[in-house]
Structures are given as structure tokens and as C-alpha cells.
Amino acid sequence: MAASKPVDPQSGSGLPRWQLALMVGAPILLGAGAVYLWNRSRRKEALSKGNCERKTPEGRASPVPGHPDGKQPEEMSPLDMAQAAKNKGNKYFKACRYDSAIQCYTDAINLCPPDQKSDLSTFYQNRAAAYEQQQKWKQVVEDCTQAVELNPRYIKALFRRAKAYERLDNKKQCLEDVTAVCILEGFQNQQSMHLADKVLKQLGKEKAKEKYKNREPLMPSPQFIKSYFSSFTDDIISQPLLKGEKADEDKDKEGEAAVVKERSGYLKAKQFMQEENYDKIITECTKEIDSHGKYTAEALLLRATFYLLIGNASAAKPDLDQVISMEDANVKLRANALIKRGSMYMQQQQPVLSTQDFNLAAEIDPHNADVYHHRGQLRILLDQVEEAVSDFDKCIQLRPDSALAQAQKCFALYRQAYNGNNLSQVQSAMTGFEDVIKRFPKCAEGYALYAQALTDQQQFGKADEMYDKCIELEPDNATTYVHKGLLQLQWKQDLDKGLELISKAIEIDNKCDFAYETMGTIEVQRGNLDKAIEMFNKAINLAKSEMEMSHLYSLCDAAYAQTEVAKKYGLKPPTL
């Protein structure tokens, strides 16, 4: 569909990409640049199997004074008395008598010798647990801070403080603490990873909302624009105006057509489009619209399309709304406007509105192959694979020569089989890819999607060959170089070759946000956090939607949190 990236993109492993940016050993074929990747997060399932919430105090019970194994009170050391107070506090805690527990833990803190740092940190942490039950978040932070100062790698205290910071809406400090916890636990505890993911998403959304509304519009690269329009076959505005072109609305009763001679703003915009002089298109379309010219509907749609391309969805929507409401306009224009508005809604994470627009497009123009092609991609993102395959079949029925729909149908079937662990269907889908590239040898997308499936199957050598075919067919497609670079890392652990290919992608298209994002992720894994943050910031400035920008801020914030954790606690995950 017209959207350039999937919703909430994940890696094939189902892990959030901020986590992949910190971990080593997990697959790093992230696929952020492909429209067609599925959204297969298993986070809810993982959470149901995760560790239970950490609520209880800790510390083994010391022998109780007066018991056969215990010491008499006059023989007890200050530490023994502190332990006895702590044990008493634990009993009150379990009985939900939190004020009494707090008093006992306070006694333990006061009795404990200052040089017994491990025990003292436990007493502070236990008192913080009691304050947590009373929802006294500031006191929780204070006591956990004392515990962490005494024991900088105290996981319980760090995590409890992270949760308290979250309650106090201090997301930055919460993120730093939970990042430290994730590293200390080796990313094995779903509870802490869930909190990190949650806070990163919240921070990303907040920052993206502010940044996006104040961003300068940025025209994408010519390659991106051409690739965007190539995904449509029934789009009137993307078809070049030829000399002597005839307009349907000028046909007389005998079916003859008058030659379009006037040079309206819309026709000038089409000429600029043919010349790849994209910066002038919106201005010329506006002239046509303001003069109420004969191509007003076309100009509105073309202007809206370029508003979407530069990331100005708020300006695009009124134009799309107007075209859709023009019942006397060419039905192809209205259907195309619905497809683009539906794609815009999907980027804004409004799947219900998106689905409504695609369904309406199918209703008003049932023989438009673009409707089914783009709705099929929407349904893949919504995990409605059977419905997606049905849409691709309808598109193929209407346009048997649609190589793109054939390839995407194979990819949908492959994903369904792969996620269902159905080996026979996986093999059938792989055979389908072979058939597609044989029948359509000049369809670069067919090779690219097949390469992703081959990579899943760890057939790295053949996947590399497929990416080479993509590059041969589309040497200016930066995204292919990024995927090929990632393949070198996963296949041969060849960091130099991988970075060389991703750098080549940036050389080809210095507006390829996927290349900068991937470079940043690799730099995190290498431990070059400052460089990673620089790359993520470049990608943020190139993001084409608020949703993409939010995701990139999450990656950047994850890297920044790691720099702070390294400074404070000397904690770093393993690096490449």
C-alpha cells in the first residue's frame, strides 16, 4: 500500500528493535525498509510466561534470639540486632502491616554497622518495598537510591526505583534504571523488558509529536518517489502526459476527443513530474485549484500525494477528502484517493478507518486492481493473511501481468506457513517464489521478497544471489544494499562488508532513513553509542511519518540510556 513502512515494525524474532540494538546474538535482519514485513510481536505470550512481579522484601531470616540456635540478647552484635529487626519487619510485611514493617526496617537501618553495605542495602530495599505498597513513590525512590549507592548492581532496588519513577512520570530516569536491569539480567526477564519497551514507546510518541508538528517538509529522493508511484497501475495522476493526449471529459457524442492544448497548472505539474522536478509540483497544483481549472480533481489528488510524500498528512487529508466527495469525478481518482487516505490512516495507527477506506474503494471501483493490491498489504499488517491472499488473487485476476502482486502473494503464504511452523507449506511457498522470478525475471521486488524468505531459512548464499539480482535490476535502490549488508552480518559476521554496503546505500540515497537507522543499530552493537545516536538523529530528521519518527526516537533514547548506565554503573552489554 502507499504507506512506506509497517506498523510497529518488529524483527523476525518478535523482539522490540530497541532490545535488538542492545543484544548480540539475536537475528539482526530487521527489515525496517520493506513495506511488506509482517507484524508478529509475541510480547503478550512472553509476558504470560515471565517472572512474577517483585513485591516481597528479601534477606534470609537470621536465628531468632532466645531460640536454641540463637544468641541471647546481651550477646548479639549490632548486625545481629539489625537482622532481627529486619526479620520482624518481614513478618509485618507479609501480614500487610506496612507501617509496622517500615518501623522495623528503620530500626534495622539504624542498628546496622555502616561497613556492612550488603545488609544495609537490603534493609533500605525492604523499606522501599513497604513504601511501594503504600504508594509513597518519592520515599520508594529515596530508599532505593540509598540501596543502589551501597550496591550499584542491586537488581531489585533498580527495578523498584524504575517503577516508582514511572509512577512519578519521570520517564528518563525510569528508562535508565530499567535499562540497567535489562543488562544485568541478560534480557531474560520479560517484566523488565516490558517496562523498558513501554517507556521507550511513550517517550518516542511524546518526542515525535512535538518534533513532527514543527518539522520542515522534506522531499524524498527521486528513487523513493518513483518506487512509490510504481506500486500503482490505475493511478491517472502518475501516468505521463503525452503530446496530443486526449481527455475523457472532452469526448463528444460520437466518441471523438479534443486535443488538450492549454498549459494549466496541473499539466505543468505533470510535466515537472516527468522531469523529476518534484519541488515545483505542489505550487503548480495549487494554481490549478485556485483557478478552478478543468483538472481541479486531478490537481487536488496530485497535491495530496506530494503532501503525503513530504510527510505533511494534515495538509493532504483535506485534499483527499474533497476528491473522495466529488461524485462527478472520475471514479479512478476517487478510488486512488481512498487508497492513499487509507494508507495514511494505517501510518497513523487507525486500522478501522483504514479498512473502511479500502472497502469503500472496492465498492465504488470493483475492477481496480490497485485497491486489492494495497488492501492485501494492509491485511498482512493486520495479520489477516487469508484475506490478504484473497485480495492478491483478485488483483492478479484483474491484472495477470502484475508481478508485484504475485510476489507479495507468495510472501503472504510464506509468512503464514512460517509462523504456523508448517514445513510443507513453507516449501510450497518457496517453490512459488521460484515460479514468480522465472515468470517475471525483471521484477526486482520478487527477488527481494524471496531473499527475505531465504534468509529466514538460513539459505544465506542463495539469498545473497537474489539481492545481487535486485541490484542488477535497480542499481539505485538503496534499501537493497542495506538488506544485503545485514545479510553479510548474519551470514558471515562480516562487519566491514556489511558497513560498506550500508554506506553505499547512503551514498546512493542520502535521504534513506532505513540506512541511517540500520547503521545506528549496528553501532550500538559495536558499543559506539555516540555514533549510533548521531545516525538515529539523522534518520529522525528524514522520517516520513510521526509513527516512524516515534520508533526512531525509541531507538535513540535506548542508546542514550545505555550511555548513562555505562557512566553510572559501568554496565555494558556484550559488543560485536
TrEMBL record:
The chain crosses the membrane at residues 20-39. Coiled coil: none annotated. The keyword Nucleotide-binding does not apply. Residues 46-76 are annotated as: Disordered. Gene3D superfamilies: Tetratricopeptide repeat domain. SUPFAM superfamilies: Protein prenylyltransferase, TPR-like. Keywords: Membrane, Mitochondrion, Mitochondrion outer membrane, Repeat, TPR repeat, Transmembrane, Transmembrane helix. Belongs to the Tom70 family. Residues 46-58 have a biased composition (Basic and acidic residues). It is a single-pass membrane protein. The keyword Mitochondrion applies. TPR repeats lie at residues 82-115, 121-154, 335-368, 369-402, 444-477, 513-546. Signal peptide: none annotated. This is TOM70 protein.
